Amino acid sequence: MTSIISKLPQTGTTIFTTMSALANEVGAINLSQGFPDFETSPELIKLANTALKKGHNQYAPMAGVLALREQIAKKTEKLYGTIYNPDTEITITAGGTQAIFTAITAMIHPMDEVIIFEPAYDSYAPAIKLMGGIVKSLELEPPDYRISWNMVKRLINHKTKMIILNSPHNPTATILHKEDIEELSNLVKTQDIWILSDEVYEHLIYDGETHHSMAMYPELQQRSFIVASFGKPFHATGWKVGYCMAPALLMSEFRKVHQFLVFSVNTPIQYAIAEYLKNENHYLDLPAFFQQKRDYFRKGLEQSKFKLLPCSGSYFQSVTYKDITDEKDSDFALRLTREFGVASIPVSGFYSKGTDHHVLRFCFAKRQETLDKAVDRLLKI
């Protein structure tokens, strides 16, 4: 038999798959993988059904249904004051992860260096490696996980081609601040460096904070691929519809890859979301909706032995457990699932070196009764 030379020899089953499978096996409450357990909007379901019945069941245009691209452009202009051309600067993708992979594939060549910040969403590094690129990771530390821009400056050299940012951040629930934007702008203004900005949690931001999208800053917008998703905000992660925005020159390269990766995306769902976006309250009301869940979950955990870390965005709450045990986070997460019936994600799984700060991540995008049951079990520890 011909031998296989793996392109990702160190890659195995993701921690998300492992924890969700264990939760199903033992009947635990699954606060590990990031998906809601409440229903998608009946209005949005109806719109999808209508699109199906209207016959929108064949291939969509490669760049996506124009009506949806137009609504994205309107939303972006309203929120961030920046105009994107729906024809040349917006592409609909099969979820955020595909958009991330496509941008990296389009821009990264062998031996190019890409800076990522860990803990990091687990698709970044493998995509870079598959393109022959070199991952330059900067580890962030709890409780605030702030970026040291002086350290970033030290990582930059003539091989640096891209910086990947994620705000609101998965898994730490932190966000970029105005001073971060200023530091980033100063770093890249004289460099030939692209930015890949993962903004899938853009609408899940709390306490009156501002989401600092790359679209808001012309000097950054002109070098940025901005990735977003409809699955997270509209409680329909299984639909796998997202999008990428970039200046026309960058988007041209993005589409060269996109057309051979998936070509086009679920047609009736695109029509449904396009119609749904016409009511701006469907996304403007999201911060209050998810903040209520965050506050409810945090209040419930205040009486536990877990220590709550800051949560400014996303639908994840991280906690430290140093007052409970000195076990590795992966071991404690497994025991927590088996013995107490609550599944979480050990944050060491988001570090390439498995760095363990004794932090677990819980997803609070759940029904109130689910959160009540989970908190009741966690209080028994």
TrEMBL record:
Q: Which GO terms describe its molecular function?
A: kynurenine-oxoglutarate transaminase activity; pyridoxal phosphate binding
Cofactor(s) recorded for this entry are: pyridoxal 5'-phosphate
User: The Aminotransferase class I/classII large domain covers which part of the protein?
Assistant: 29-378
User: Which SUPFAM superfamilies does UniProt cross-reference here?
Assistant: PLP-dependent transferases
Gene Ontology CC annotations of this record: cytoplasm
Q: What organism is listed for this UniProt entry?
A: Mucilaginibacter frigoritolerans
Q: Which Pfam families match?
A: Aminotran_1_2 (PF00155)
Matches recorded under InterPro entries = Aminotransferase_I/II_large, Kynurenine-oxoglutarate_AT, PyrdxlP-dep_Trfase, PyrdxlP-dep_Trfase_major, PyrdxlP-dep_Trfase_small
Q: Please give the PANTHER family that the UniProt record associates with this protein.
A: FI04487P
The UniProt keyword set, sorted, is: Aminotransferase, Pyridoxal phosphate, Transferase
Checking NCBIfam families in the record gives: PRK09082.1, PRK12414.1
What is the protein's given name? Methionine aminotransferase
Q: Which family does it belong to?
A: Belongs to the class-I pyridoxal-phosphate-dependent aminotransferase family.
